[in-house]
Amino acid sequence: MTVARKINALHFGILLFLLICFFTLPAYHVGALSRIMVLAIYAIGLNILFGYTGLLSLGHAMFFAAGMYGLGLSIKFLGVSVVLAFGIGILSAAVLSALVGLLALRTAGVSFMIVTLMFAQTVYLVVLYFGEFTRGDEGFVLQQAERMLAGFDVTTEAGRYFVAFGAFSICLIGFSALVQSSFGKRLVAIRENEERARMLGYDVWRYKLLAVIISGTVSGAAGALYALLFGYVGATFASVQYSILPLLWVLLGGAGTTIGPLIGVAFMFYLIDASSAYTSAYMLIAGLALVVLTMFAPRGIAGILRTKVSPWLP
Amino acid sequence: MAAVTLLETKGLTKTYGGLQANTDIDFILKKGLVTALIGPNGAGKSTFVGMLSGRTAATSGRVIFEGRDISQLPAHKRIQLGLAYTFQITSIFTGLTVHENVALAAARTVSADGNTLNAKVHQTLNQVGIADRADQTAGDLSYGHQRLLEIAMGLAQEPRLFILDEPTQGLAETEINDFIALIRSLAGRTTILLIEHNMKVVMATADHIAVLDQGMMLAEGTPAEISANASVQAAYLGKTVDA
Question: How many domains does chain B contain in total?
Answer without folding.
Answer: 2
